[in-house]
Amino acid sequence: MKSYSDLQIQKGILRNDNLVLQYIYKQFFYKVNSFIKKNSGEEEDASDIFQEAIIVIFRKLKEDDSLFENRPFQTYLFSVCRFLWLKQLESRRIEKEKVSETLPFQEDVYDDNLTELVLKNERYSLYQRHFKSLSTDCQKIMQMFFEKIPLKQIAQIMGYKSEKYAKKRKYKCKELLINRIKQDADYKKILEDDT
Amino acid sequence: MIRKVEFLKWIENYLSGQLTFDQKKIFEDELKVNSELREEFKFQSEIYNAIFEDDVMDLRETLSSLSMAEETNPEDKVQASFDLIEELDTFNQYDKKVDPKELLNYYDSLPKIHVYQHDIASKENIHHFYNEQEVAKVDVEDEDSEADASLMDEIQAAVLEKEVLQLRESLNQITHSMPEHNVSDEKIEKYIEGTLPENEKIEIENEMKVNSKLVADINLHRNLESALQENDVMELRSEMDQIIKTQTSHTKELEDIEKYIDNELVGEDLKSFEDEFYSNSDLKSDVKLHKDVNAAIGERDIIDLRDHLGEISKDSYTNESKSIIMLRPNFSSSLMKRSLAASILIIVGLTAMLKLAPVNNEKLYDKYYEAYPSYGLSRSASTDMDQNLKQGLVLFSEQNYADALGVFKSIIENDTENSVARFYAGQSYQNLDENRNAINEYKSVVEHQQNLFVEQAEWYMSLCLIKEGEKQMAAQQLNKIVASNGYYTQDAKTLLRRLKYSD
Questions:
Q1: Which residues of B touch A178 (CB under 8 A)?
Q2: Does position B352 have pLDDT exceeding 60, yes or no?
Q3: Which of B20, B198, B250, B320 qualifies as a FRET site for B2, CA 20 to 30 Å off?
Q4: Alpha-carbon gap, residue B263 to B291, rounded angstroms
Q5: Number of helical (H) and strand (E) elements in chain B, helices listed first
Q6: DSSP code of residue A107
Q7: Mapping DSSP to helix (H, G, I), strand (E, B) and coil, where does residue B293 land?
Q8: Which position has the higher pLDDT, B78 or A168?
Q9: A146, B228 in Cβ contact below 8 A?
Q10: Residue pLDDT tens, chain A, 195 long
């Protein structure tokens, strides 16, 4: 297998390069997996945490592209995974003092910025998950709306008779989405975390 | 058409049976066509049921069992001269008081529920109770045994600590599932857009000051838009998803796995492999897969084949996917050179030939096509491989294709999944110039996937297609081979180019 430098990894993540992502997965996931399994987690938790860690890093990279100049990618990844898992343990009310540390991590990764980013990521991924659960029509119409495509055109593309109907459809979709989000137990948890 | 703002009222009246016949019909018709109403109705009736069946029933049951308990101890009743019992009596009234209809009347308005709770709370003031208890104790000492007093204490404590708490919790739950404000989504949206009339805007802002839930909802609306425009993140997530679903995670190359299985790893390499092996289930399962594949082929076969391949340089067969393509190395030496030479010859004459009549096409094909060597033969010599297959391969290597085909066919009849037989049946057909049949055999080899002949079958299939004059399909097939980046990729590219030019 080809190996990648941190810079290549950084660029790979930013452009969703499948090969780089595969490489990251092959190289690092099993360690995260064994860390989580040792600390009251399941295989599924590990996949979720790993995936979200990559996305947190992606968000972070968009803010700050010198991220891997001071520390290796591997350390950063493991630190984020550990952070996410500890947070998860907390919300499951599992004692995190007894964590068996099998991952190398750096304490200074855990700053306010990361905490904030992780919270934002949690919120956004919840919204996105529910968005993806809408019908494709709904997704399409909302996306177009957000992209500020004129209503008239939206109505045309979707084959609706009138702009008014397009607007109504869009409103219904959004309402459905909001309701689903609000009924999600995770959303309630997020609200509690915020306050 | 029932307006959205009136949903609650209609549903409520419907559930509590307060609609006239006509109204009921209107409501039910609306329910059929209005999905939104349907959702709301489902939700409301669940609440309704919850209130009816669970909480209240529970409460009623516990309360009645409580009064039963009281009755089974008639002495208590008789000596109910002290305040405690009176307290209980007033408590008994609560099972009437928590009439579901009454609850429903409260439930559309949040403040009312709060008031209601406060009402209950004030009536069962624990502080009061203890005061009264003090008095009671004095009474008890005067008039009755201590045992009875402690029983009463217990009853009291149970009443106050369990049932009331339970009721409170149920009510709390209802409160939580109720909308925390009455500002509609539409209004919120208009508020964010800034298209709301001034007076309504002020109203909302005033409400926001005291209602954190409204603030949260408005933030939700605001965030939603930017969250849904994050296409890049969504794509990244689905890509990761795919990878996690389809890949295994370990740092070892196929080569290392093979070496590990063959006990060829030593020293540091072995240690690092084993370290990972014991902590990484993915690596474990990959090693198992390799072992299984080897077992499927037959260890002895491999050893024989390896001996047979003795002269071949190590490089060519330790590359990426050694174990999967055991059959290749033979090709990689002399045969490959020959076939490359053949393809060069073909390139020279291909354009012209392809343009000519199919007869010439066949000539091209004849040059290009070489019967696939029956490796099985050398492998089978020292194994207990299926006798039939062995016989077939012997016939095949003697170029007695018709008889060989008969044998392969009989094997397939008993074992439709036997890809070795299918592949060589295809080969036999091809040699007998029955290309259509050959293509069918190759197809089933390719579709079966779990075998060692997929690449070969794809390649020979494309040759058959050329011979049948199906240039377009052949091109498709060749493109697939090119994309797979396998052993025949280079040949396929060449042939494809020639095919294109010949159009």
A1: 185, 220-221, 224
A2: no
A3: B198
A4: 12
A5: 32, 0
A6: G
A7: helix
A8: A168
A9: yes
A10: 678 899 899 998 888 888 888 889 888 998 999 899 989 898 889 989 998 999 899 888 888 888 888 889 999 999 999 999 998 898 888 777 778 888 888 888 888 888 888 988 888 888 888 888 888 888 888 888 877 888 888 888 888 888 888 888 888 888 888 888 888 888 887 777 665
The one-letter amino acid code at B417 reads E
How far is Cα B435 from Cα B474, in angstroms, rounded to an integer? 13
Question: In this structure, are residues B233 and A128 in contact, taking their beta carbons and an 8 Å threshold?
Answer: yes
User: A90-94, A97-101, B65-69, B161-165: lowest mean pLDDT where?
Assistant: B65-69
Cβ distance B354 to B323 under 8 Å?
Answer: no
Domains and CATH numbers, chain B: 4-177 (no CATH), 185-244 (no CATH), 254-318 (no CATH), 328-501 (1.25.40.10)
The tokens for B358 are: 């199919």
Query: Which DSSP letter does residue B186 get?
Result: H
Alpha helices in B159-253 (DSSP H): 164-177, 185-193, 198-210, 212-228, 231-246
Secondary structure percentages of chain A, helix, strand, coil, to 5: 75, 0, 25
Separation between Cα atoms, residue B251 and residue B241, nearest integer Å: 20
Instruction: Extract the tokens encoding B327.
Output: 């059959």
A160: contact with B, CB 8 A cutoff: no
Separation CA B286–CA B255 (nearest Å): 12
Tokens of A62: 């968009």
Distance from CA of B52 to the nearest CA of A (A): 22
Instruction: Report residue B285's pLDDT band, with 50, 70 and 90 as the boundaries.
Output: confident
A146 contacts in chain B (CB < 8 Å): 225, 228-229
According to DSSP, residue A64 is labeled -
At A190, which amino acid appears?
Answer: I
* d(C-alpha B149, C-alpha B143), whole Å: 10
Name the residue ranges covered by the structural domains of chain A: 1-111, 133-195
The Cα–Cα gap between B337 and A1 comes to 28
Substitution target in B236, B250, B275 with the highest count of A β-carbons within 10 Å is B236
Q: Residue B78 contacts by C-beta under 8 Å, 6 or more apart in sequence? A: none
CB count, 10 Å around CB of B416?
Answer: 12
| Minimum-distance CB partner of A16 among B185, B235, B282 | B235
Angle at A160 between CA A156 and CA A161, to 5 degrees: 100
Q: Is B46 on the interface with A (CB under 8 A)?
A: no
The answer to whether residue A164 neighbours chain B at the CB level (below 8 Å) is no
For the cut 60, the answer to whether the pLDDT of residue B77 exceeds it is no
Write the ipTM.
Answer: 0.74
Pairwise CB contact (< 8 Å): B240 & A125: no
Predicted local distance difference test score (pLDDT) of residue A32 = 92
Taking the C-alpha atoms of residue A153 and residue A156, their distance in angstroms, rounded to an integer, is: 5
Q: How many CB atoms lie within 10 A of CB A156?
A: 13
**Which stretches within A39-150 are classed as H helix?**
43-63, 67-70, 73-91, 112-132, 136-146
Q: How many residues does chain B have?
A: 503
CA distance A165 to A148: 17
Q: B322, B320, B286: which is closest to B305 by C-alpha?
A: B322
Best of B223, B228, B245, B276 to disrupt the A interface by mutation (most A CBs within 10 Å)? B228
The owner of tokens 């599924």 is A44
- State pTM to two decimals: 0.45
CA dist A71 and B19 (Å) reads: 70
The verdict on a CB contact (< 8 Å) between A16 and B239 is yes
Cα–Cα dist B238/A102, whole Å: 28
Mean local confidence (pLDDT), B222-249: 83
**Closest residue of chain A to B179, computed from CA coordinates:** A182
AA identity, residue B296: A
Average pLDDT over residues B324-329: 38
